[in-house]
Amino acid sequence: MTDETAKRFSHVKFGVRTDVGRRRKNNEDSHGEWPDQGVFCVADGMGGAQDGEVASRAVVESLSGLVPRFSRFDPPVAQPDRIKALAAGVDAASAWIKRYADSQGKKGCGSTFVGVALDPADAAKATALHAGDSRVYRIRGKKIAQITRDHSVAEMAGVKDERQLNPMFRSMILRAVGVKSQVETEETPFDLREGDWVLICSDGLSRMVEDPELAAICAAAPNPQAAADALVDRANELGGKDNVTVVALRVGAVPQGPRPVRARL
């Protein structure tokens, strides 16, 4: 990878923090950051204790074997092929987790996945890819927008507060990595401007801290690491009912104009 390729994503800085929370004994969340390739992700394992940890770690490790390979291409691979490759990496993890769960006689072993890939051809664009209820937010000024749509019963029912649901349906997700050998990931493009924040998080954050407060905490933070720390601390102050993980991105001056990429992988 040339210095020029690495510079394509240098306008975005990041900070990351993960914490077991106040109620759990194990941290079933995992996260991955590949800033030279503009790719960041969070996975929230399910299945209890070791199984959840194994599942979420399998997702991140699958991408850890894939994303660095992007550096072999100069100019870099175009965004559509990058997204296809990431989806294939998540599918590979899903197949592995399914085989693991079947071999151990375990049910319910799996993981959410949410990732963001910056576009190498246009510094003002990015794509979110996800399955489950881990989220991507974009904060612009005082406004916060949820970029991803939860794959959950609550979302399907149009319920904002899960307490309105029958308890058996609360926190129930409709897509997850590892439940089947393949998983359908949803792709959501979005734009970036100088000064934007992008939060990639597990539901240990989104269920504890209201959207307006997420925006206020970022607005007060001097840098992405301070934002990630403050967000996790606030989730714990409010009860820390689950593991909480956040990758906070801060967008600096956005380079203008198109940049060359490979048309195909």
Task: Characterise the protein shown here.
By secondary structure, the protein is an alpha+beta fold. It is built from seven helices and eleven strands. It has one domain: Phosphatase 2c, domain 1 (4-Layer Sandwich). The two termini are 16 Å apart.
Descriptive keywords:
25% strand, 265 residues, Phosphatase 2c, domain 1
Shape descriptor = globular
CATH superfamily: PPM-type phosphatase domain
Strand content: 15-25%
**Rg (C-alpha, Å):** 18 Å
The total domain count is: 1
Discrete helix count:
7
The largest β sheet comes out as: 6 strands, antiparallel
Helix content: 25-40%
Report the structural category.
alpha+beta
Query: What sequence of helices (H) and strands (E) makes up the elements?
Result: HEEEHHEEEEEHEEHHHE
CATH class: Alpha Beta
- Would you report the number of β strands? 11
Mean pLDDT: 90
At the fold tier of CATH, the topology name is Phosphatase 2c, domain 1
Terminal residue distance: 16 Å
The low-pLDDT segments are none
The assigned CATH architecture is 4-Layer Sandwich
Question: Which helices and strands occur, and which strands form pairs?
Answer:
Blueprint: H1 3-7, E1 12-19, E2 29-34, E3 39-46, H2 49-64, H3 79-104, E4 110-111, E5 113-118, E6 125-131, E7 135-140, E8 143-146, H4 153-157, E9 186-191, E10 197-201, H5 203-206, H6 211-220, H7 224-237, E11 244-251
Antiparallel strand pairs: 1-11, 2-3, 3-4, 3-5, 5-6, 6-9, 7-8, 7-10, 10-11
